């Protein structure tokens, strides 16, 4: 997909999307936000980023038919903290993290290993295309980022996205 990247902060897009998210998930799901201080900007397509969040919210809603909690948090991840994500392929750099966590049904390991595959879905026929998370994965990778998912049956699901910190050209020269 063609992206239109621009420098933005997660909190701006999340603030704009809050009303939409609340309508999408309904009244039985408690939506909370926790933002880190002085978040760094990222270079990505803000419209596509909003779609990523909407996709996570809709999947979380479907995983919590009787209600639950959906929390979205953001924070800066300095170069020295990147090893905590357990992926040695992450280059040394500063990143901005967005974490989306739900208290839903969770996923077993055999499902978890396939969630980013195109056309893979756990939903009933006619209820999902299996393209949502593969598009999320594509957006993150095209934006130079990394995505991780942790989930256990009965314990909910957590998605973590790391996008590289965007430095303005003048800042980059001085850094």
Overview of this protein structure:
The chain is α+β, with helices and mostly antiparallel strands. The chain is built from five helices and seven strands. It has helices at 10-25, 46-63, 109-112, 132-142, 169-174; strands spanning 6-8, 29-35, 42-44, 68-77, 95-102, 146-152, 156-164. The strands form two sheets. A five-stranded mixed beta sheet has the order 2-4-5-7-6, with helices on one face. It has a two-stranded antiparallel sheet with strand order 1-3. β6 (146-152) and β7 (156-164) form a beta hairpin. α1 (10-25) packs parallel to α2 and α2 runs antiparallel to α4. It is globular, with a radius of gyration of 16 Å. 25% of the residues are buried. The model has no long low-confidence stretch (mean pLDDT 89).
What descriptors fit this protein?
5-stranded mixed β-sheet, globular, about 180 residues, alpha+beta
Give a quick precis of the structure.
By secondary structure, the protein is of the alpha+beta class.
């Amino acid at each position: 997909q063609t992206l239109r990247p621009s420098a933005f902060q997660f909190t701006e897009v999340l603030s704009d999307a809050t009303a939409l998210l609340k309508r999408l998930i309904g009244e039985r799901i408690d939506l909370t936000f926790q933002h880190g201080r002085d978040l760094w900007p990222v270079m990505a397509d803000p419209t596509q980023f909003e779609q990523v969040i909407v996709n996570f919210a809709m999947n979380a809603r479907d995983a919590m038919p009787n209600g639950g909690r959906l929390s979205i948090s953001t924070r800066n991840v300095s170069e020295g903290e990147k090893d905590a994500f357990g992926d040695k392929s992450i280059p040394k750099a500063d990143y901005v993290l967005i974490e989306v966590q739900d208290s839903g049904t969770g996923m077993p390991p055999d499902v978890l290993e396939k969630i980013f595959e195109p056309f893979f879905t756990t939903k009933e026929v006619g209820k999902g295309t299996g393209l949502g998370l593969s598009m999320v994965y594509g957006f993150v990778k095209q934006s130079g980022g990394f995505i991780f998912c942790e989930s256990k049956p009965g314990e909910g699901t957590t998605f973590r996205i790391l996008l590289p910190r965007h430095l303005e050209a003048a800042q980059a020269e001085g850094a």
